[in-house]
Amino acid sequence: MPILFALVGATGVGKSRLSLELAERFNAEIIGVDSRQIYKDFAIGTAQPSSEDMARVKHHLVDFLDPRKVFSAGDFCANVKKLLSENPGQNYILVGGTGLYLQSLMLGLPQIPKIEESVRKSFEDDAIKFGSKSLYEKAKLVDPEAMEKVEENNVQRIIRILEVFQLTGRKLSEWQKEREGGIGELPVFWLNRSRENLYARIDARVDQMMADGWLDEIHELAKTVPLDAPAWQSLGYKELLCAKDGNQVQSVLEEVKRKTRNYAKRQLTWFRWQVKSTEVDLDTCTNPLEYIHNRVVAP
User: Fold this and answer.
1) Residue 299 pLDDT more than 80?
2) What is the pLDDT of residues 175-205, one digit of tens each?
3) HSE (CB half, 13 Å, CA atoms) of 97?
4) Alpha carbon 101 to chain centroid, angstroms
5) Measured CA distances, 96 to 38, 70, 101, 188 (Å)
6) Over the stretch 139-163, which tens digit does the pLDDT of each residue have?
7) ∠ CA(74), CA(149), CA(110), 5° rounding?
8) Which strand ranges, in their side-by-side order, compose the sheet holding 3-9?
9) What pTM was estimated for this model as a whole?
10) Cα(33)–Cα(97) distance, integer angstroms
11) Residue 87 CA, distance from chain mean position
12) What is the distance, to the nearest Å, from the Cα of residue 296 to the centroid of all Cα atoms in its chain?
């Protein structure tokens, strides 16, 4: 298996630097496991690897997808399997924070019948006409289990839950318990820090995004990317685009920090309980590079 292991963890925990060092140590390339970093040119606000990082170690499934395209867990699995089949001698490391992608790749995908385009389009039209809140509340009634970790602005996920129920009469959470086509379990290392340190890092990173030109990126993207494109669901993009003055911008940034901290909390819970893994506490582990290296058998 050319995938050596997965390095996962909450947003802002410190995956990027360590993943580069590990990739170099194992002569591996990195496969991104992030549902937001996939979109081309939505770079700063999704914390995509820098051009220097991507020159240092080759990355896949990062900054490659048309912002108008929908990208599912099934698409992720298909892309990874294609990459593996075309490069059987290459080592890879999975790096990211989208647990659903990792779980689907290892355990397989629910065998849900193909959704008719008209069904999805109907829900998309409702989201535009009535707003995401009405669909959010409806989805919570239809499938509360699947909606436990879904935020109101995640329209793509909400529509997925509704369309599956409408087409099949079964909850998405039920389908997800019946999986096929996984590649099997991999060594998974999930990075952790104290909540205090993690939240401080998240707040600092949002501030750094602004210093790096996030607002300019947003307004440039608005010139060419339709506002109903899936990429605009990335946290903070639409909100900052609508901010009219400095006070509104600061208010949006505080909300982005709060929602990112909440998202990180949910990620921590997921990686702790939803996948077999080894925790690496970056507050106490003096050399995480050596710690992980010594627990991975290179082929």
Assistant:
1) no
2) 878 888 999 999 999 999 999 999 999 999 9
3) 23
4) 8
5) 11, 19, 9, 11
6) 999 999 999 878 887 888 899 999 9
7) 30
8) 59-60, 28-33, 91-96, 3-9, 188-192, 278-281
9) 0.84
10) 6
11) 24
12) 24
